[in-house]
Amino acid sequence: MGLTQQDLAAACGVTFQQVQKYESASTRLTVERLWRVARALQVDVAYFFIGLAHEDLSPRGLGGAAARIGA
Question: With 2 labelled, which of 11, 53, 67, 69 sits at a CA distance of 20 to 30 A?
Answer without folding.
Answer: 53
